[in-house]
Structures are given as C-alpha cells and as structure tokens.
Amino acid sequence: MLDAQTFRAYRDAMVREFGSRNLLEQTLIEQIVLAHLATFQLQASAGLAKTADEAGVYAATAAKLMGEIRRTIVALNELRSPAPPPNTIVTQQVSIGRTDPPAREESAREKATGSIELGDADEGPGANRLQRILGDGHPQTARPATPRCAD
C-alpha cells in the first residue's frame, strides 16, 4: 500500500508532466492516476486471492476500472482538442441501396397502338399465346403490362 505522501508526490509529478491547463484537466488527470494505482492493487489482490471466485471478482473489477481509465483519457484528449468553428454543419449523404427497376423497352407496335400482344415472336404477328392456352372461346383484350416488383 502507498502512503498519502507518496501518492501526493506521484500525483503532482503526473499533473506537471501532463501539463494541466485548468481545474477540470487537473481533476481528470488525478482521477486517471488514482484509478491507475487502484488497478495495480486490484491485480495484486487477484493474485493473492484464496479462491478462484475471489480472484475473478478482483480481476473483473480491475478490467472494468481499466476501461474507465481509457474513457477518461479519451475525454481528456477531446477536452484538449481544438473546438470546431461555430455554426459548422457537417452533412453526410447515405444511400439506402434502393434502385429503380430497369426501364422496359416498348416495341414499335406498342408505341403505335398503345396495346401489348401476348404472342411469341416465332409464331408471327397476331399470335396470342393466352388464346392458344385457353382456346378460342375466351375473348382476350390486350392490356398494358404492369411491372412487377422484385422482392
């Protein structure tokens, strides 16, 4: 265990080395120093523990404290970084992956008549595949095709 005088000397040396510019920075530096020493004590306690459960508690607490030290150092660095200019707006365009379906090419006949024939190209003009499937007794009217959405 460290006595108060030794800790104070260590703390003062660290504050001088880090060069705190204000009371807030000095407080953060002192917290980092104190937590750093506490992690050493927790690790030592984990090594001297009598049971595995006791060692696990000490080691887990030391790990959590090391995470807090890291976050405090990040906060200190952000505090020391220059502030962005006032009234600065940062924007970012994000694409959500939506694309329009490809345009369907219309035949010359569709453009001229505005209707679509359901025939096979190899059967010649006027061939209607739906009439062939259903038989001649079912009159069919040509309708414009509706594009389908792909899932």
Form type: flat
What share of the residues lie within helices? 40-55%
Radius of gyration based on Cα positions? 38 Å
Overall mean pLDDT stands at 75
What's the multimeric state? single chain
Total number of distinct structural domains = 2
What is the count of DSSP helices, taking H or I runs of 4+ residues? 5
Biggest sheet, in brief?
Answer: none
Distance between the termini: 67 Å
| Low-pLDDT ranges | none
Number of extended strands:
0
Question: How do the SSEs run, as a string of H and E?
Answer: HHHHH
**Derived structural class:** mainly alpha
Strand content: under 5%
Detailed description of the structure:
With 151 residues, this protein is mainly α. It has 2 domains: 4-80; 107-144, no CATH class. It is 54% helix and 0% strand. The chain contains 5 helices and no strands. It has helices at 4-18, 23-48, 52-80, 108-113, 129-134. The longest helix is centred in the middle third of the chain and has 29 residues, at 52-80. The radius of gyration is 38 Å and the shape is flat. The mean pLDDT is 75.
